[in-house]
Amino acid sequence: MATTQTVASQQARFGATAGLYTVVVIAILAAINYLGVRFNKPLDLTSNKRFTLSQETQRIVGNLKQDATITYFDTSRNFDQARGLLDRYKNLSPKIHIEYVDLRTQPMRGREYGVRYQGTAFVEEGARREEAKSFDEQGITGGFLKISKGVRKVCFVSGSKERPLDLTDGPGLSAFKTLLERDNYTADSVTLLDKNKVPDDCKVTVVAGPRADYTANEVSALKTYVENGGRALFLLDPPLDFRGEHIAENTPLTSLLESWGVTLEKDLVLENTALTAIYGPENPPINHYEDQPIVNDLKGSYVIMPLARSLEVKNAGKSTVSKLFSTSDAAVATTELTTGRVRMDDPKNKKGPFVLGAAGTYDTGKANENGRFVVIGTSGFLTNDMLTTALNRDLALNTINWLSSDEDLISIRPKEPEDRKLDPRGVNLTLYSEVFAFPILIIVAGVAVFMKRR
């Protein structure tokens, strides 16, 4: 009798405990479900944060002063494909609203907006409306940029054998032009040979690797431009001079920069770090940055500066100059520029570290109208074949953003999607493990538990 009561008591306790656990589990699941609905913040576990909007987008959307609407035009069966991207924008700010328009059932809405293709998005803020150039982050964020800042023009000086803006081969700058257009800049070539000033519509002027000396007219135009509040980027390569390679010393232009506090040395910097085996000593990988808006977000990462010369930096006259980035202590610089062969162990080499980039302001005497300039000892990092290496594109765009006073855009841009396909061995491993091995292990474990209980 006592045994029966004990068993009954144990069963009652077991039942009560099981019931309590069931209630607790249900309560936890209900709480998780409520929080998931109430706080819809997806977690991006991809290696390159493919499903996370960039810092640039977060800053632009986070600084909205009024409500904005993203209107997406397509057929209703395609709406779900668009929600992933649009929901990420909605999660950034309560000021963002999303509207889906079915072009089959609401054709007049499409005509009102001038929609030409399915899958088109429009950004609206206040009374302004802009079409996204593409249905991706760059296109939609570009719409917000165009509304808030308009289109700014970047002028590339031509006429002295600078790097060609529209050349699609490796040495050209066409890829950089495309990136500028995605950030709602326009990029055009201008010549100063027959002008006495930089065109008034140039928000930023770029001197990209001239191989010939600038004329007095060109230097005078650039001097007047910056000293009256203009913004300029100077990319000047080492004055190499040997068979098949001749880059002029460009004394008139380097003398102008020296008067602003930046002296360009006649040398070629060679780096000696663990990455030298990958890039070679003539393409210094840089990760030593100063505190300046252009490079603050690059810290902890690398940029690659191919065939670079060093700079000496100091404040001069009305100019205030700061360093941007430097080599490691292991770097050396050779002044032997008349041969294609370089020696790291040449006793005549100068010892590092060396400054390779600098940014300065010129005091015009007018409030909020100071000139700005950036000097980098190479134009090679901007070319088509180097722009996507390391964080070169971010350095390039950050520089333009700072020069045009668009500091709120300075950031790390979204990376290109990685190709994460499995090779055949990976596919086979997944097939055998998930389809065969794991089910068999579960069956064996179940049989073992059953036999033990028997």
Characteristics:
single chain, 454 residues, alpha/beta, Glutaredoxin, Rossmann fold, 8-stranded mixed β-sheet, 4-stranded mixed β-sheet, 11 helices, 21 strands, 34% helix, globular
In short:
The protein is built from eleven helices and 21 strands. The protein is α/β, with parallel strands linked by helices and 454 residues long. An eight-stranded mixed beta sheet has the order 6-5-7-8-21-20-17-14, sandwiched between helices.
- CATH structural architecture of the largest domain: 3-Layer(aba) Sandwich
Largest sheet: 8 strands, mixed
Oligomer: single chain
Spatial order of strands in the largest sheet: 6-5-7-8-21-20-17-14
Beta-strand proportion:
15-25%
The total beta strand count reads 21
Number of helices: 11
The tally of domains stands at 3
Q: Measured on Cα atoms, how large is the radius of gyration? A: 30 Å
